[in-house]
Description:
The chain is an alpha+beta fold. The protein has one domain (18-150). It contains six helices and three strands. The protein has a three-stranded mixed sheet. A hairpin with a 4-residue loop joins strand 1 (59-68) and strand 2. The longest helix has 19 residues, at 116-134. Residues 1-6 have low confidence and may be disordered.
Amino acid sequence: MSSGQSTEPKLSLELVPRPCWGNNVRNEVTPVEWDAIRAMVYYLAEYSCDICEKRTKKLHAHEQWKYDTKTRTQTLIGFQALCERCHEVKHYGRAEIVGRGTHAKDWMKKVNGWTNEEVAEHITESFGEWGIRCEIKNWKLDIHYLKEFMEQF
């Protein structure tokens, strides 16, 4: 953030480039495997949101991705257990589409301790990066991390 913040925000947008929609772990494994992965993610998080630390029975297993525009590779780098509100911020584009953009912005503001201007700046920067990534076609999917994750158990 140009407002002087040098560290990564606690809660940030993770916009999936349009060509990568549907490229995810859930579509690469069986339903039984996905349920086992989710259970492990929740267990490791001690059944609390990894971001806001709220304990809830309704957690989401969020996949964390790194996008390399030079190699056109979408790489799985981790998982997070997220409450509904934090997960909604991660997928802010969807939140906007379903009419929950204001709720997502308010939650991001609260969790990060940001001003409205800082929230707006983060959204603008994130969508700028997303737009560049959307121009790239034929992304390769790298989920090697999944094997590493599963070997922990």
